[in-house]
Amino acid sequence: MTNTTSPIIFDGHNDFLLRFYRNSLTITAALEGTDTGQMDLPRAKAGGFGGGFYALYVPGDLGNEARSSFEGKMNQPTYDIPLPEEVEWNDAIKVVLSEVATFKKLEKAGFLTGCTSTKDILAAFEHGVIAGVLHMEGAEAIDADFATLEVLYAAGLRSIGPVWSRPTQFGHGVPFRYPSTGDTGPGLTELGKKLVTECNRLGIMLDVSHLNEKGFDDLAAITNAPIVATHSNAHAICPHARNLTDRQLAVIAESDGMVGLNFAVAFLRPDGQQDVNMDIELMLRHLDHLMETLGENRVGLGSDFDGADIPETIKDLSGLTRLREAMRQHGYSEDLMAKLCHGNWIRVLKKTWKEM
Ligand code: ZN
């Protein structure tokens, strides 16, 4: 017997915490449910959502705008959206501390359990509580002496993307450009290379999702951990700068890392358009391509819930049931479903967090 809410889904990326920073969500509304955004507790239960990475992200406008500056801009036949200015450490750290505080409040309120090991994640699945792992998307809040890295690690941080797309002192990111390869500029700085070593030492996962190709190669040359793209898709299907070429996928496979499928329509659709009217079948084409190049043990999900425009048929967390249905109709076995929904994340995190 199959069930549309299982296997439970562990997910590579969401921007849920940003909604609190923008004052568009309260803890009570998150627990009771709301008709805004894509994530809350009732919809998590309805969709069989087991948890994932919760991003600490500093908006370029430092929270002064209601929504991302990307809204509706990725709808020209070709585009290259200007990136926001660099953010200073003393601005970034305030935003990040506020988001960590929200995460801790969500934990106290019973919305999620903060996890720092795969044992924690599996126990949360068992208890029916969302498993939350703290991730930093863009390392603006990390100082050059890595004191904040040490402190945030102690607070539960277990994954870092050295850059979101705008530049940081650690490196340069990939722009929101279509069509384009990810080969768009210089890669990691010397300090960025040091950050990779520090993260390896602590057992913090490194996320290449927003790095450009040069930064990706710089990281790959240094890291001793599996290379992970938490929320990226196949460039062979959608030639967006944010997506990964077959060459990059081969490097990830070589490192025994993985890729989480991003639900953002602009990174799924071959035409790169921010149009949510899209056949769910296209998500399966990306999954198939990722599995062809990475193997079926190195692919998972990385939705970008609360951070992107996603297919209308999925709409929010409750729509994960429709994704499972589509995966089964496409012929994926139950064994493969379990790997894609959470098993591969657990496998890679065990290695990355040095549990084996
Ligand atoms: Zn992102």
Secondary structure elements and their pairing?
Blueprint: E1 9-14, H1 16-21, H2 27-32, H3 41-47, E2 49-56, E3 79-81, H4 89-108, E4 112-114, H5 118-127, E5 130-137, H6 147-154, E6 157-161, E7 176-178, H7 190-202, E8 205-206, H8 213-222, E9 228-229, H9 246-254, E10 258-261, H10 265-268, H11 281-294, E11 299-301, H12 320-329, H13 334-352
What can you see in these coordinates?
The protein has 356 residues and is an alpha/beta fold. The protein has a single domain (9-352), classed as Metal-dependent hydrolases (TIM Barrel), CATH 3.20.20.140. 38% of the residues lie in helices and 13% in strands. It is built from 13 helices and eleven strands. It has helices at residues 16-21, 27-32, 41-47, 89-108, 118-127, 147-154, 190-202, 213-222, 246-254, 265-268, 281-294, 320-329, 334-352, and strands at 9-14, 49-56, 79-81, 112-114, 130-137, 157-161, 176-178, 205-206, 228-229, 258-261, 299-301. The strands form three sheets. Strands 1, 2, 4, 5, 6 and 8 form a six-stranded parallel beta sheet that branches. It has a three-stranded parallel beta sheet with strand order 9-10-11. The chain has a two-stranded antiparallel ribbon with strand order 3-7.
Average pLDDT value? 96
Helix/strand order, N-terminal first: EHHHEEHEHEHEEHEHEHEHHEHH
Give the low-confidence spans.
none
- The strand count comes to 11
Distance from N terminus to C terminus (CA atoms, Å) equals 34 Å
CATH superfamily: Metal-dependent hydrolases
Question: Tell me, what is the CATH class?
Answer: Alpha Beta
Q: Please report the number of helical segments.
A: 13
Query: Helical content, roughly?
Result: 25-40%
- CATH third-tier fold name: TIM Barrel
Heteromolecules bound: zinc ion
What CATH architecture label applies? Alpha-Beta Barrel
Major β-sheet annotation: 6 strands, parallel
